[in-house]
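Re: that chain you flagged

S.,

Sorry for the slow reply, it's been a week of failed gels. I finally had a moment to sit down with the sequence you sent. For the record, here it is as I used it:
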Amino acid sequence: MADPRHAQRGPGRRAGVTAFACAGLAFGMIGLAFASVPLYDMFCKATGYDGTPRTGLAPTVAAIDDSMVVHFDTNVASSLPWRFQAESPKVEARLGETKTVFFRVKNTGTTPSTGIATFNVQPGLMGSFFVKVQCFCFNEQTLQPGETMDFPVVFYIDPEVRKDSNTAHLSEMTLSYTYFASKNGQPTAALATTGGTGTKSNF
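Prediction finished late last night. Pasting the structure tokens below so you have them in one place:
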């Protein structure tokens, strides 16, 4: 005959195991959610997915006699009292050739402020072929009132762009930056106030 005490403990033990498993699953899902953001960011930077430019070293292939015009779009979120512009609104870049372009930012406010820039390329398919060698994006920058700083962007366009049927016909692209106020190393807003694509600030 079965011991009734064992029969009573059985359901309780199973309930405890189930609760423990559910708690472990919940904590695991939370950890995965936190980890997915940097993992997704790394994936985009490595592959150029979702319009995110690749990051890499200097080109390993020779430049070819073909080029694309790269337009620069600079924007600043309304919460940050900065002016921001590229030294030139556009450049013509030979495929496979390293180009350096400087961007200037100025704090027009009356107190020190810290900003961080996000970026994207359009059309999004160019993210796989636009390679940043050096960039100020995602680095916090603190400017004193009235201070102006220049930051370089070094890049090249992979000649493989002409071998992809989706991009072979393209002659122009846009590299877009938006500066946001920074808190704990992260942009504080998801939307920027701009005067339209390509809007530049006069110093």
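What I noticed first: The longest helix spans residues 4-47.

Talk soon,
D.
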